[in-house]
């Protein structure tokens, strides 16, 4: 049951807080695309190339984490009845520090500069630290927990672990501290970030938004109650087993076998979501649904490629293998899920704030735009097709970098521009209607 | 007189929009029965602000039924109380 009992303007953060996160994300999409165009095939050499590291963080921090932080600040009061304390300053500081820190980190990788990385770590530590403390306090104050709240808690804990590992790694990578076994720590950082922070939040939030917005049956009870917790403890077990490998207690086969079991939770979630979407009561396709289908299929393909890597170690050691896996999971999985979600969150928030404003002013003769009136379906679909072209070109670039990297970058710029345009138009529509309400209400 | 509004197949925020719109045409002495698949918490404060009373109960094929009538319309309130 969606607990929206506390959904009111008094509790919801000012709309400018989530909107600034959502509007910044496409900018990082544009920068990522420009980086691909500028670097060309050099960007697809190996997972350890500075360009790939830079690109990965522009997408994971600049796009995905940016939207997820903004959405979480908005969702905590709405879905959990627990507002983020000090939302104004917390939102402003975390947004600014995350934006600047991501830019500084991307630049530090390209320049190989320890000075820039120190600045980036400071900014990201402030941005994500302030966010994690404030969101953690809000989560601790939740009176009535739900599977979505549980997913948020595990996800936030995973973010803290990811950031800590990332800081350690960056210092090791730039020789600020001595760190052996960089590949193992990198896998742990990546695993906690992708599967923990992003995966668990997406799963937890899906329990609410998929049945609510896509008119599907509920997820199975057992999945809602146990999946995110099991995955978190599965990741914690993997962490300890990997530390055992680093210390030389056992071979890497042990955590490898463990992860076969743990990661199965993600295709299980993706398959279940596709299944309940097929059973949805109103068979109307919309842009969020098609973004989600691509994302869920991306997760399934990503899992398949990961399995192939476990079965064929010679494939897993090829330079293209981690690039393919990363492209599938990040750009083919998380990216479209987050992108698709934006097309529900932004119109809903806009409409909800205007609805409350109208009631407060009693200006009932002003006609509010419908939720679907904030973002045009044609424009959103065009952005989807541009994204799809960018995805297929990026996958092709893994195997033919000289031919496909720059076109992939060009389409990434185009789809990000279109996303930014669509979001900006929705926000302008919100602002214009609010001005009209205020003018009419004050008469 | 009973007016029925089935919003069980609609996605947010259409149920809320249609319900609020239907209340504007609701006459004193009539009530609106909304068929919903969820308990629409955001609707309730909006109804109260616009001078309506409401009763939400689990039931029907969709999951929930919400009865809405003009505040102070005791005759309608009695009628609703008699509905099994």
What attributes does this structure have?
A: 443 residues; mainly alpha; disordered N terminus; B: alpha+beta; Translation Initiation Factor IF3; four-stranded mixed beta sheet; 32% helix
Please provide a written account of the structure.
The complex is a heterodimer of chains A (443) and B (84). Chain A is mainly α and 443 residues long. Chain A contains 14 helices and no strands. Chain A has helices at residues 16-39, 50-80, 87-111, 114-140, 147-173, 182-214, 221-246, 253-263, 265-278, 287-311, 313-316, 320-361, 377-399, 401-442. In chain A, helix 1 runs parallel beside helix 3, helix 6 crosses helix 12 (320-361) and helix 7 (221-246) runs antiparallel to helix 8 (253-263). The longest helix of chain A has 42 residues, at 320-361. The radius of gyration of chain A is 21 Å and the shape is globular. Mean pLDDT of chain A is 91; it is low at 1-7. With 84 residues, chain B is of the alpha+beta class. Chain B has one domain: Translation Initiation Factor IF3, CATH 3.30.110. Chain B starts with a strand and ends with a helix. In chain B, a hairpin with a 3-residue loop joins strand 3 (52-59) and strand 4 (63-70). Chain B is built from three helices and four strands, in the order E-H-E-H-E-E-H. In chain B, 32% of the residues lie in helices and 32% in strands. Chain B has helices at 14-24, 43-49, 74-82, and strands spanning 2-6, 31-36, 52-59, 63-70. A four-stranded mixed sheet of chain B has the order 1-2-4-3. The chains are: A mainly alpha (443), B alpha+beta (84). Chains A and B meet through helix 6 and helix 12 of A and helix 1 and helix 2 of B.
């Amino acid at each position: 049951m969606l607990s929206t009992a506390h959904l009111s303007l008094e509790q919801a953060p000012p709309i400018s807080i989530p909107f600034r996160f959502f509007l910044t994300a496409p900018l990082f999409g544009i920068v990522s695309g420009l980086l691909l165009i500028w670097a060309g095939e050099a960007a697809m050499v190996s997972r350890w190339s500075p360009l790939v590291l830079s690109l990965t963080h522009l997408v994971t921090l600049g796009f995905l984490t940016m939207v997820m932080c903004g959405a979480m600040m908005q969702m905590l009061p709405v879905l959990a009845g627990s507002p983020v304390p000090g939302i104004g300053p917390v939102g402003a500081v975390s947004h600014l520090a995350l934006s600047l820190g991501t830019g500084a980190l991307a630049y530090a990788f390209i320049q190989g500069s320890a000075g820039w990385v120190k600045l980036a770590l400071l900014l990201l530590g402030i941005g994500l630290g302030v966010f994690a403390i404030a969101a953690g306090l809000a989560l601790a104050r939740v009176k009535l927990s739900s599977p979505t709240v549980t997913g948020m808690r595990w996800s936030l804990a995973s973010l803290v672990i990811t950031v800590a590992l990332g800081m350690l790694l960056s210092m090791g990578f730039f020789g600020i501290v001595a760190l052996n076994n960089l590949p193992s720590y990198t896998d742990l950082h990546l695993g906690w970030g992708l599967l923990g922070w992003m995966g668990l939040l997406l799963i937890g939030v899906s329990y609410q938004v998929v049945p609510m917005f896509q008119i599907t049956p509920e997820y199975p009870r057992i999945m809602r109650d146990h999946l995110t917790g099991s995955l978190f403890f599965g990741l914690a077990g993997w962490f300890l087993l990997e530390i055992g490998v680093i210390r030389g207690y056992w071979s890497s086969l042990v955590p490898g076998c463990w992860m076969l079991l743990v990661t199965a939770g993600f295709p299980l979630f993706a398959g279940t979501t596709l299944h309940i979407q097929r059973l949805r009561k109103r068979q109307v396709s919309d842009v969020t649904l098609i973004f989600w289908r691509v994302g869920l299929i991306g997760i399934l393909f990503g899992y398949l490629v990961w399995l192939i890597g476990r079965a064929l170690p010679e494939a897993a050691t090829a330079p293209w293998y981690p690039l393919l896996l990363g492209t599938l999971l990040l750009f083919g999985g998380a990216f479209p899920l987050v992108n698709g979600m934006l097309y529900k969150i932004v119109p809903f928030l806009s409409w909800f704030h205007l609805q409350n404003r109208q009631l407060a002013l009693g200006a009932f003769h002003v006609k509010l735009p419908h939720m679907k009136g904030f973002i045009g379906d044609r424009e959103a679909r065009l952005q989807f097709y541009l994204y799809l072209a960018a995805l297929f070109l990026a996958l092709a670039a893994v195997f033919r970098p000289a031919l496909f990297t720059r076109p992939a970058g060009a389409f990434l710029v185009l789809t990000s521009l279109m996303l930014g345009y669509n979001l900006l138009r929705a926000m302008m529509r919100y602002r214009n209607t609010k001005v009209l309400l205020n003018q009419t209400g004050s008469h | 007189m009973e007016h029925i509004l089935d919003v069980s197949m609609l996605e947010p925020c259409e149920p809320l929009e249609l319900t609020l719109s239907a209340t504007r045409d609701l006459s004193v002495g009539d009530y609106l029965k909304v068929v919903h698949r969820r308990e629409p918490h955001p609707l309730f404060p909006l109804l109260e602000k616009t001078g309506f009373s409401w009763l939400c109960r689990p039931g029907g094929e969709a999951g929930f039924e919400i009865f809405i009538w003009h505040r102070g319309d005791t005759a309608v309130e009695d009628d609703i109380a008699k509905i099994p």
